[in-house]
Amino acid sequence: MSRFLGLLFGRQARRRWIHLILGGALAMPYVFVGQLVVGPATNSRYVFNDLPLQLLSFIVGLPLAALTAALFPLTRPLEAGAVRSLCGVDAGLLAHGPARSRAAKGRAAAWFTLHLGFGGIISGMSLAVPPFAGFLTALPLLVWLGGAQLVDLPEALDRTWVLALAPVAGVATLVALAGCAAVCGSLLARWAPALLGPTPEDRLAAAENRAADLAVRNRLARELHDSVGHALSAVTLQASAARRVLDTDPDFVREALAAIEDTTRRTVGELDAVLGVLRDGDTPGTAPAPTLGADLDGLLHGTRAGGLRVTARVDADAGALPPVLSREAYRIVQEGLSNALKHAGERVSVTLRIVIAEGDLEISVENPLTHAPTCRPGGGHGLRGIADRARLLGGTMEAGPAEAVAAQGIWRLRVRLPMTCPPTPRERP
């Protein structure tokens, strides 16, 4: 019994009842418009006082409601919000954006019509049934107090058994009203995911947005890894080298400290640019991303200050490269030198070549294989990041012991990037 009463008068049933009454309130303007059509069509001056004409006006107004939902795409998110709050439907089953496609607009129109139709009926019953039920419940008391002077009753109602059943009938009408509201509310809650849920086009658009967001996140992760990781590796080695020769080679110490200062200042600017994207969406940060044409010399200087002997051969006009290619090439060179700093040890020779071959920009970094790399916890993403950058630009990457010079123990990183490359996700129109 308690479960039955909960289905009729529980919290969820009451909220769905409110949702239906909201639909009845939304239906009133369309009923008034329907009266303007029904009145002249039936030559009636008082449509409001005629129940059949009122019902006819209600029926005429429903197609206008459907047309409204089809013409205004925001009807769907507004209705979805009401369904989520009042009908207890999971938000993941509902669409949150405006209806754009024809199918989505048709479903939204069908839902809006059902909501206003059920809501208008339940609202009318909610206005008429409670006073009638109250009258039936109080009828024996009214007859006992005033008889026919207070209540004009038909002769049949003077019978005692009829008066005794009147309160029962009043309570039954209230239960029937609650049952109708519960059934209509349950039907709308069941139909809501089908009519207000995302269409295949909505799911495709959502998947594309998620893919774009993931691409941006991956790009930012690569930027942070390459920029901050290289800076920390370089600063660590520069400080270590300066500490060892602090008393014997002050000129080298001064050079190392200046390189540390320059590296940290540049990295803070890059970090601020990346964090600015995270804070402000697509708004650029205060510092531009480094490029091969503008920042290669500073990168080589900072790397050499850490004790790494870098021989650079640049047979390409870095300043004439496309901006995207120049930026990604800088990060690839930076990560290649960072790997050499971390794994090849200090005071080793690294050969960097940047050339244009067969229409591609070719970058190669070679360093001696001194010992097996010792990766820090959570590291090991450098080569994968280089591979991701190359793949996004339509290029290729090779990394490993160089076959032609395997006897000398040389590790080679080679990347080929097409001179004409697609834009990265953040730069797509």
UniProtKB/TrEMBL annotation:
Reaction catalysed by this enzyme: ATP + protein L-histidine = ADP + protein N-phospho-L-histidine
Bilayer-spanning residue ranges: 20-41, 53-74, 108-126, 132-151, 163-189
GO molecular function, one term: kinase activity
InterPro entries xrefs: HATPase_C_sf, Sensor_HK_TwoCompSys, Sig_transdc_His_kin_sub3_dim/P
Keyword terms of this UniProt record: ATP-binding, Kinase, Membrane, Nucleotide-binding, Phosphoprotein, Transferase, Transmembrane, Transmembrane helix, Two-component regulatory system
Domain annotation Signal transduction histidine kinase subgroup 3 dimerisation and phosphoacceptor: ranges: 217-281
Domain of life: Bacteria
Principal EC category: transferase
Entry-linked Pfam families: HisKA_3 (PF07730)
Enzyme Commission code: 2.7.13.3
Protein name per the record: histidine kinase
Naturally occurring in which organism (per UniProt): Streptomyces machairae
